Amino acid sequence: MKELLTVKRLECYLLIVVAAAMSGWGLAGSPVVPFEIADKAQPRHQGDRLVFKRLSKLGMTPAALCSDAVFHRRLYLDVIGTLPTTAETKAFLADKSSGKRSKLVDRLMAREEFADYWALKWCDLLRVKAEFPINLWPNAAQAYHRWVRTCLVENVPYDKFARDLLTASGSNFRVPQVNFYRSMQSKTPEAIAKGVALGFMGARTDEWPEKKKHDLAAFFSKVGFKGTSEWKEEVVYFDQWKTNAVKLMVSTFPDGTPVRLKPAEDPRVTFTDWLVRPENPWFAANAVNRVWFWLMGRGIVHEPDDFRSDNPPQNEELLRWLAKELVSADYDLKHIYRLILNSRTYQQSAIPATDHPERTASFAHYPVRRLDAEVLIDALCQITGTTEEYTSAIPEPFTFIPEDQRSIELMDGSISSPFLDMFGRPARDTGLLLERNNRPTAAQRLHLLNSSHIRKKFETSGKMKKLLKSKVKPQQLIARIYMEILSRPPTKAEIEAAMTYEKSSKLGRWRASMDLAWALINTKEFMYRH
Amino acid sequence: MHDMTISRRDLLRSGLCGAAGLMLPGGLRAAPAVSAPRAKAVIQIWMWGGPTHIDTFDPKPDAGYDYCGPLDKAIGTNADGIQIGQSLPLLAKQADKYSILRGMTHGVNAHETASYMVQTGRKAGDGDVYPSAGAVTSLLKGYDAGYKGLIPPYIVLTAPQGRFSESGFLGSRYRPFSTGGDPKAERFAVEGVVAEGISDDRQRGRRELLHKLDALGQAMPDSSEFKALDACEKQAYDLILGDAGKIFDLTAEKDAVRDCYGRNTFGQSCLMARRLVEKGVPYVTINYKGWDTHKQHFQTMRQKLPEMDQGMSTLLQDLSDRGLLDSTIVWWGGEFGRRPKVQWDPPWNGGRGHYGNAFSSVVAGGGFKGGIVVGATDAKGEEVIDRPIHPWDLVASMYELLGFDPSAMLPHPQGKKIHVYPDMAAGLKKGGRLKEIMS
Known about the structure:
The complex is a heterodimer.
Chain A: H1 7-23, E1 36-37, H2 46-57, E2 65-66, H3 68-80, H4 86-94, H5 100-109, H6 112-125, H7 138-153, H8 158-167, E3 170-171, H9 189-201, H10 210-218, E4 223-227, E5 234-238, E6 250-252, E7 258-260, H11 267-275, H12 283-296, H13 316-328, H14 333-341, E8 369-370, H15 373-384, E9 391-392, E10 415-416, H16 418-422, H17 442-450, H18 452-459, H19 462-469, H20 474-486, H21 492-505, H22 508-521, H23 524-527, E11 528-529
Antiparallel strand pairs in A: 1-2, 3-5, 4-5, 6-7, 8-11, 9-10
Helix pairs in contact in A: 2-13, 3-5, 6-7, 8-11, 9-10, 12-13, 12-14, 17-18, 20-21, 20-22, 21-22
Chain B: H1 4-13, H2 19-23, E1 41-47, H3 65-68, E2 74-76, E3 83-85, H4 89-92, E4 98-104, H5 111-120, H6 133-141, E5 154-157, E6 177-178, H7 200-212, H8 215-219, H9 224-241, H10 255-261, H11 265-278, E7 283-288, H12 297-321, E8 328-333, E9 337-338, E10 354-355, E11 359-364, E12 373-374, E13 376-377, E14 384-386, H13 391-401
Parallel strand pairs in B: 1-7, 1-8, 4-12, 5-6, 5-7
Antiparallel strand pairs in B: 2-3, 4-11, 8-11, 9-10, 13-14
């Protein structure tokens, strides 16, 4: 961002922008301060070229490049589910080296919180939950979460990750990945097949023809479950002699290829061999589409777990290119993250440069999305230096939650808080990606605007107290509050508005500053990824 | 006995089984009720943890000490031939207003699954999580159906029940609003609505400041996401600054009334529920905790039953005096009952375990007749021996009184065809709707 712009010119920009916005002009002209900067909108790789090609075909221009401050905050929230600290923001904004954005991408992907945040997302779709309707039981849920997180830390290739989940046998406590088969709403071959198709093919079997459903179920008809003498332990294994309604012998893969199943061979392995082949039309495409959805807010196939012939990808070439990239990078998902995060497409401003109704579906701007429930409460805790209480209704020693636990680290969907529930944390009932609900409700609005819960966090915050008691000029104090909450310095006009408020409200510095902090956490800029 | 043919006949009688009804597309929202509904609202007294049936509404004084412990007396009521537990003398005087469902059964002893079944009227584990009765009421009698109140249509006093996601696949729009705070406090600080120590002037000033500093919102005036948020904000401020929030001010009630309900959280919650229903809120749950009495059961009963007796009996009397009982269903019950046989050994020391095989619920008002017992358990309260009532029988009966369209479907995100009425699902063992007490 051009921090050297004079204040006068800044104000001038603001005026132009606000006027433009109000009169409904296209915004393709000057960048909106402080959210955007000018650039030549050059594609950075083939992915960008494919997005831009599509946009120009539809008569759209991509949005402006987001400013450094916006990028920095966005990347923290998207990649590690964590608000940047003031020190981190300052250092990034002061860094004048080229390639600093790309370096930040690598730095954040190496952080512990990367594994925390993505384990959370993966555990949503794997339905990692102790009780109802998925009944993993607390210590199995925690073992499973730990396993998923470890895979992320070690960056296990996605094909191996899938194979481990699909073919494992053993105890739910000791071989945690077997919990995959325990986290369906029922243990029938059909229910397992449904969960497998959703997770690894992005397909919903409900509408499949009966024969196709039945054929997929055949691969899971020999999954055995048995208890042990240890309480709530369950062993998942290949049960060659299991009898059930699903007939074995000959089956058909979902792409129509017939296969002969041999009684002594675990059909899960046969299925997995078929699934993870590079030419499988679902496997890699589903994986990259999901990452795209997570980072870009919308799938190339959308809804992101609804691959079917009558729901074509918005940009087929783009999807194919990404899938090819995943395969040629030996299923390294971090490679896909890097491609997306370094793209001009991802680094667009949230403010669209076109009124085209398809602008969001075509990725003509970065779509605003309310922060995930967990990210939002963690951010509020970080700003105030306070903690939250998380509880599970299941009375077990395994569900003890330390006081300073961040919510993105919660390992079990049965552990929650009223705030998380209110702000649309998924119940982990279905494994559908859109079960996470970030749509606003009046109750959420009441909570952030006016609840004692949030108010007390600020009023009792030692961190805020220290900040507000520091002997600095009012402008500096305002700037600090801005950096802490919005991860950017205030504009001149914003400083003036805050100072005017203090004077005209006659509340005194403490209460006026509290109100400023309150106002900022209630801005769209705070509540939404942008 | 009631069975499937009866439900079918009911359908025919209400005239909606004809072609017109069946041809309506799935996901029919907010269908207008066919006949004038008997009930406009539900007050659900949710006995969190599973209340004992044998010490409340299904006493077994002859079962002996191993079953009754010290609570071995039943008392007569103002309804002919009906006796209830000795700890509920005030409710005994109101028995003509409610009916006791002693045939409740589902056989599940786990809190989560049982809570789910009782509150949704659905069997667990078929791949979907269905919405609770409150969420369905919020769908069919809330904002989508023309409800205009500023108070959300589905309220929980005071903390969420948890255990499962109440709105199920309907999504968060139909979640209950839980008030937080404590209605027995000097000021009932409803979370988000009432902020102590912030004057209305300061509220307005802060709101202006917020709008002035909303730079991103100003830069994207035509964002549909932001417009949705602005609409929620307006709704929120109508509650914060408008008159609607005054409903929560219990000091507006006479001291004598508040005393009558009992100056405890449950009693004042009952009073609050009455005020909400009076204002047109269609579904209020009082989440009454503390009934999961594995240990020292009888000590807990001595403390809690009088409180429950006072609050609930006053609620029934008050609703009746105000002419609200005719249109308000009061539904008392938890996820299951408690084991009739007492566990005297340590570590329980006189506790009762979970018991889903046989338990009681109580319903009053809104078209449910009073003074009747439906179903019966054996001499020890362990088995249902007459007129079993499954969760779907009870929930469907309430829906019928609430006037929900018998052909209506719930909007399912993947377009599955799901009847609003849970007893219309396939493969259920049924006791039938509670026709014997429905007027």
